[in-house]
Every structure is written in C-alpha cells, then in structure tokens.
Write a structure and sequence with these properties.
This protein is an alpha/beta fold. 46% of the residues lie in helices and 14% in strands. A 5-stranded parallel β-sheet has the order 1-2-3-4-5. α10 links the parallel β7 and β8. It starts with a strand and ends with a helix. Bound molecules: hypoxanthine and zinc ion. Hypoxanthine binds next to loops. Zinc ion (ZN) binds next to β1.
C-alpha cells in the first residue's frame, strides 16, 4: 500500500501477542488451559459469537496487574506501527479487571503509559476508548472514565452480549459520559439486527457504530446512515470468524460502501481472529474488489471520524491525499 492505514476499532485485550498471553498467565499463576502458542491458536475456532466472548473473558483473566496493561498496550502500538498505521484507536475493557479487584485509575494510567512508550520515535497517532461491557452494571466505570476525559481518554464504547442486553439500558450511562466530555461509539448490528443499530443511533446518540453491518437488512437505515454521515467500524474477518456472516461473499462491506455509507476497515481482535488491519485492507482488495483509490478513501474516512483533535486529523489527512 502506498498510503498509510488507519483503524478505529481494535480491542486491546484481543490484540495481545499469543506468547505474551501465555507468559502473563504463567507469571500471574492464572489457570489458563493453553501452554503453547500452538495450543492457544488451535482454540481460536469459535463456533459462534458467544463462544468468542467466552475466550475474550478467559484472556482477560490473564491480566492481573497494571504492568500487564502497560506491556500489552506498548506491544499493540509496536505492532500497529510496524504495519504503517498512521492513526489507531485502541479500546480497553477495564470492567473485567475491576471485577477482579483492580482499580480503574491504575489500569487506565498503565494503558496510557504503554501507549506512550509504544509511540515513542514512531510516526503514529493514537486515541483511547474505554469499552463498557453490556452484561454488567456500567454506571461506575463510565463515571470513573469521565474523570479522564481530556487526560488521555477520548470516548466510551459498549461491547459484549448485544442480543441479550439492549441499548435502552445504557441511555443514562451515555448521557453522563457525554456530559463529562467523552465522545461515544457503540457495538451494534453485529450479533443483533437493524433495530439494535437504530437504538444505538436514537437512544445512545452515536455517530459511529462498531460493526453495524446488519444495517444492510433495512434499506431505510442504510439511507439514513448515508445521509447522516454515520461511520461504520467494519471488521470483515471478525464477522466471518464469529459466524455473523458465513463467508466474505455474504459480507455487506461492498454493498454498504456502494450505497454511500462511510465505512472503515478494522481488525477488532487481531490476535484472536489472526488478522491485522493491514490484512483487512488486503481482504478488501482481494475479496471485495476495492481499488487502491477506494482503500485510500477508507483511511480518510477513519481519520475524519476519529476521536482525536482536529489539528491532528488535518495533519494526518495531508499524509493520505
Ligand atoms: N463485539 C462485542 N464485544 C466484543 C467484541 C466484539 O466484536 N470484541 C471484544 N469484545
Ligand atoms: Zn469489537
């Protein structure tokens, strides 16, 4: 690719290098049933979306102290910079650690420090998103996140069991986060249909949606996304690996793009889906026929929809003409 890449949707805990997960599990005395990279990789065949969430939780259990977060954040940024990514947003899921007794502020400070170390001397800009988990009470975490607005944390997201825990339950959490100065995105239209995307837009008032691909089932919604300039954080390999679509041929990426929806390409959980944002750009070219010029536009879409400062966006956009 002769232009830099950008991604908006990468889960820190889904991006941990396999050998790092195994080392941390051992170091922290965690009961983790995989002791080699090969064993771990063999377990990355998910029969469905909820099985994937189980593995995500299992990996989270391997993280036991702030330095673990510093390490995985540093390594994730090194891996992004090695792919010539000029802009990336990283989302972490502190509620998993808080449930095991860690402090939100300690985890957050460690992630920010790891990101700083990873960036040092590398041409990459980053933003951090706090990921809430639908299955749990998100109020406290969102309130704590609000105190970091403008201090290294830009936004909140909500992930986890979309079909079981609808957006309606999180309206107050999103209102409070916005009042505290955080921006917002939400997973929707991945494990549930267009109604969930409508709810994210109308109830959570997001202008960006994680996945959002099942919007394709509702033509009125597709036109609405286009007309409102709502950006979808599309993760093609993730959707195949969690069984949201059977294969790339059934994935609506190209149809959404052709309908004028602002789409971006993302790796989601690169270590768990054995992908990378670079690979997602290659998939878009190979499986969906995106031209280099179209791929460049997807990088621009990501930067334009980014949660970073306007000056940063302008500078980054000059590098992707
Ligand atoms: N969807 C919902 N929750 C998640 C995901 C996802 O793609 N990745 C990590 N947690
Ligand atoms: Zn995700």
């Amino acid at each position: 690719m002769d232009f830099p890449l950008a991604e908006l949707h990468l889960h820190l805990e889904g991006a941990i290098r396999p050998n790092t997960v195994i080392e941390l599990a051992r170091e922290n005395g965690v009961d983790f049933p995989f002791s080699t990279v090969e064993e771990l990789q063999r377990a990355l065949n998910f029969s469905d979306f909820l099985k994937f969430l189980e593995m995500f939780q299992r990996v989270n259990h391997c993280l036991a102290k702030p330095r673990d977060f510093e390490r995985i954040a540093r390594e994730a940024v090194e891996d992004l910079a090695a792919q010539e990514v000029c802009y990336a947003e990283i989302r972490y899921a502190p509620m998993h650690s808080m449930l095991r007794g860690m402090e939100f502020d300690d985890v957050t400070a460690a992630v920010i420090e790891g990101m700083r170390q990873g960036c040092e001397g590398r041409p990459i800009e980053l933003a951090l998103i706090c990921g809430l988990t639908r299955q749990w009470d998100c109020g406290e975490c969102a309130e704590l996140a609000g105190k970091w607005a403008g201090h290294g944390l830009e936004a909140i997201d909500i992930g986890g069991d979309e079909a079981g825990f609808p957006a309606e339950d999180f309206m107050d959490v999103y209102d409070a986060a916005r009042s505290a100065g955080l921006q917002v995105t939400a997973h929707a239209g991945e494990a549930a249909g267009p109604a969930s995307v409508w709810a994210a837009i109308e109830i959570l008032e997001v202008k960006r949606i994680g996945h959002g691909i099942r919007a394709i089932e509702d033509p009125v919604l597709v036109r609405f996304l286009r007309d409102q300039g709502i950006t979808l954080e599309v993760c093609p390999t993730s959707n195949v690996k969690t069984g949201v679509v059977p294969d790339f041929a059934h994935h609506p990426l190209r149809r959404l793009f052709d309908a004028g929806v602002r789409v971006t390409l993302n790796s989601d959980d690169p270590a768990m889906f054995q992908t990378s944002v670079k690979q997602e750009y290659e998939v878009a070219a190979r499986e969906f026929g995106f031209s280099p010029q179209e791929l460049r536009l997807l990088t621009r879409n990501a930067i334009e929809a980014g949660f970073c400062q306007t000056e940063v966006k302008q500078r980054l956009l000059e590098g992707v003409l």
